[in-house]
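Hey, I'm writing a tutorial for new members on how sequence and structure tokens pair up, and I'd like a real worked example in the thread rather than a made-up one. If someone can provide the structure for the chain below, I'll link this post from the tutorial.
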Amino acid sequence: MKKSIVLSLLLYSTTIMGSSIEKVDVLVTQEELKFTLNGNFDLNSHIEIFIDADNNPKTGYSKGAVKGADYLIEDNYIYSYPATAKGWKWDKADRVFYSYISPTKAISSFLSLILANTFDRFNYIVKIVSSDWKSSVLSSTKMQKLQNHSKPLKHQDIITTMFWVGEAGGVDNGYISNYPSAWEDNWLLLYGGVDTPNRRNGYNPKYFIPYENPFYFALPYNDFTDDYKRKASAKNIPWYSEAKEGESLCRNRWIKISKNGHTAYAQWEDAGPFGEDDVAYVFGNKKPKNNIDTKAGLDVSPAVRDYLGLKDVDKTDWEFVDFSQVPIGPWKDIVSY
């Protein structure tokens, strides 16, 4: 089995004589490895990051302080080291695209790297080489753990019901209206109107184009308390390391929803059905705690219902996905931010 990991490289640099690497940080999220380099080096310097993915110094490229490197990020490319190679011999694997952002002169690049998903940590070392390739500085070798960021589980045969923006409170929804959402007091206004399920224009409501994604869903978890404090249970969220003050880790997150061989994608816009603290189900392998009415564990919008051809009460499979994994489709016509 393989998994795709997106790496982004952020380099904070000043153009002065003499190179040094002051600090190297690695942020691991569900789908991303982000290297942050702090130091002094010319922007024309060559950046090399050697990655020992299998934690075996006897396999991969070795020379000096570099031991067992299976992958190399160098300037505009990512390379893999062939199993039978000797010396400096790398296979080009993917392109790296750089952009310069002023005034910080940050350099960012995005690339995809295929790594075996059997490892739970990797070693890396960073090397800055002068523009003429004549001198270099090395960081120390460090280990980065991955075990807390494994791919979230796929939830299967989950009872799924429909809800919509602007739905009035009544028996079916516990007299809880959908004028607000868990994270937006004026959800109805923000969306642009009532997302009426029985009067449609394609995947949009019949009489207006919504301001936000009509492909949305609700799961029974909210990472904030009623007084907008982050819950301790939020640490169970696989991408918890991305937390920013005052911003929900759940809102606008994507999931993949499947039914009978058909798949839709949607964004998280509310908490429910009938609960906001079911962390063991949403981020674990437990079944939903909800025992009310249909015992649903997932609410989906009219657009998701129509795309998958769901009944009022149905069963679907779902799993979290990163935005980079979401293919082109009607769910990307309007994206919520």
